[in-house]
């Protein structure tokens, strides 16, 4: 743990924690946005309008967390920012193209004439898939220590598929909460069919992580650490069993409980992310660069910290306000 009496010690830890939190919030919130986009072709046109309405008030605020995380990486850990983006230049480019396609298609489809609407629907789907696959590929390479070999590329490609399916799962869980009737029934089926991707994805990353280095192997599997960490996979397994059961007995007679699959999925994603954070701490570039070696000067970090104390509550407050105002079931998103 950092020495909180020394700014050079606690400031890098604070920014690493804030960056990690921002990435987790982004993965959950924009994850369901991307998941809804991936599921888009499986719905009818009327259902697609409801799906857009389920994410319309939130998607731009959700992506703000990604901007915050990348901004922290740039200003607080500039050396790591250069190393990571150099190694991941191509998937980052694909992700940005996907995000642009999603944003443009999202706005244009609501205003286009019927004969053009199908084009924007396809582009919304393509942008969502591109973004999800690019993020999964980056995750796989990061877990492998940014090594550029055929084996790490293969693992990254596998992770890309699993993350895309995982996003479709959390997207389905969000639709279970925000929809009703036929669309909710479809979302339940999509959730049941995509849960396997969550299981396989978490399993693949969990099994591969200890093999990256001797340090990680000892951190997870040496005694007594293996006993201390046992609750993490046990609780994750229980959450998966809970999700499996819920998705087979829903819809509940009381639809007010429709939020439960999304809440449990969020907890599962959070546990998986905490496991990764434990694995790589104190490294910001796995096995190469620690957060303390990569951090900017303490004087610069303190100035940035003061700004973050203002900006982060504003972003969080805006997100909470949006989810509070637009709670309840989704309707068709319209601009007229």
Task: Please give a structural write-up.
It is a single chain. The chain has helices spanning 7-39, 45-55, 59-76, 78-87, 89-109, 114-143, 150-178, 181-208, 214-221, 225-228, 231-249, 260-280, 291-294, 298-325, and strands at 283-285, 289-290. It has 336 residues and is an all-alpha fold. It has one domain (10-325). A two-stranded antiparallel sheet has the order 1-2. A hairpin with a 3-residue loop joins strand 1 and strand 2. Helix 8 (181-208) runs antiparallel to helix 11. 39% of the residues are buried.
Characterize this entry briefly.
With 336 residues, this protein is mostly helical. The chain has 14 helices and two strands; from the N terminus they run ααααααααααααββαα. It has helices at residues 7-39, 45-55, 59-76, 78-87, 89-109, 114-143, 150-178, 181-208, 214-221, 225-228, 231-249, 260-280, 291-294, 298-325, and strands at 283-285, 289-290.
